[in-house]
């Protein structure tokens, strides 16, 4: 194979490797993926740092106001301070026989940081969960040092997954949800297995590129000596 053609193949392979980066990015997710309607559950909001040059220093999770949740408590996270705030509801709702005009609306974590290459989980106990919907969305805002704010607020699902999907939990009949402690990797990692596969494939491609480069170098040296 001519040296020029080999060099072209190596260059195209390198471009392919670089193109793997955006596809393997992680999202802010809610785990486990399912919870029982009408019950109480613990949800872990998993927050990865997607920047190489900044740390995550704030997380805001918005609780559903169209299907309000009356009981919200947070598990302490070392280094972080959590604040739960209430807000007036768009219209009063009746939950377990009590009419509500306001409900918890946001949870804000500040004070800590998630450095590049790391993630953190923020646990919240919620309930009772609504019985008149099949999914809850938790739009979130992730703030980095330097002031950048990434909004995870797009509705997931559809033909193409949005770039910044909101964390979501599917509500199922009592007894059908996956227990948090028994959550499978596909339930709890939100594509981590898929991302790992992409990463391993990328590493293999890198190895191939290096091999091609070594061959080019050896071929060039042999021709120069000839």
State the main characteristics.
5-stranded antiparallel beta sheet; 4-stranded antiparallel beta sheet; alpha+beta; globular; Immunoglobulin-like; 226 residues; single chain
Outline:
By secondary structure, this protein is an alpha+beta fold. 26% of the residues lie in helices and 37% in strands. It contains 4 helices and 12 strands.
Describe this structure in words.
The structure is a single chain. A hairpin with a 4-residue loop joins strand 10 (140-144) and strand 11. The protein folds into 2 domains: 1-26 and 190-226; 27-178, Immunoglobulin-like, CATH 2.60.40. Helix 1 (3-18) packs antiparallel against helix 4. It has 226 residues and is of the alpha+beta class. The chain has helices at residues 3-18, 20-23, 185-188, 192-225, and strands at 29-31, 34-36, 41-48, 56-62, 71-74, 81-95, 98-114, 119-127, 135-137, 140-144, 149-152, 168-172. The strands form 3 sheets. The protein has a 5-stranded antiparallel β-sheet with strand order 6-7-4-10-11, with no helix packed on it. Helix content is 26%, strand content 37%. The protein is built from 4 helices and 12 strands, in the order ααββββββββββββαα. Residues 1-26 form the signal peptide. Keywords: Membrane, Signal, Transmembrane, Transmembrane helix.
Please provide the ordered H/E string of secondary-structure elements: HHEEEEEEEEEEEEHH
* Whole-number mean pLDDT: 78
CATH superfamily of the largest domain: Uncharacterised protein YcnI-like PF07987, DUF1775
Q: Low-confidence runs (pLDDT<50, min 5 residues)?
A: 5-24, 181-203
Architecture of the largest domain, according to CATH? Sandwich
Q: What is the global morphology?
A: globular
Gyration radius from CA atoms, angstroms: 24 Å
Count of all domains: 2
Q: Which percent range describes the beta-strand content?
A: 35-45%
């Amino acid at each position: 194979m001519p040296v020029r053609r080999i060099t072209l193949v190596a260059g195209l392979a390198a471009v392919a490797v670089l193109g793997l980066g955006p596809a393997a990015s992680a999202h802010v997710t809610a785990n486990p993926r399912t919870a029982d309607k009408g019950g109480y559950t613990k949800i872990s909001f998993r927050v990865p740092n997607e920047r190489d040059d900044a740390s995550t220093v704030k997380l805001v999770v918005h609780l559903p106001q169209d299907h309000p949740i009356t009981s919200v408590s947070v598990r302490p996270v070392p280094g972080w301070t959590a604040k739960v705030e209430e807000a007036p509801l768009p219209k009063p709702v009746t939950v377990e026989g009590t009419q509500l005009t306001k409900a918890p609306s946001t949870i804000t974590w500040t004070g800590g940081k998630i450095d590049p290459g790391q993630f953190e989980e923020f646990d919240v106990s919620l309930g009772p969960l609504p019985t008149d919907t099949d999914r809850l969305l938790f739009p979130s805002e992730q703030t980095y040092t330097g002031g950048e704010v990434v909004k995870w607020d797009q509705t997931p699902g559809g033909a193409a997954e949005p770039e910044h999907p909101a964390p979501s939990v599917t509500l199922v009949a009592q007894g059908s949800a996956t227990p948090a402690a028994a959550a499978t990797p596909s339930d709890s990692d939100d594509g981590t297995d898929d991302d790992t596969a992409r990463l391993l494939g990328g590493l293999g491609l890198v190895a191939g590129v290096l091999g091609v480069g070594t061959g080019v170098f050896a071929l060039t040296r042999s021709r120069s000596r000839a």
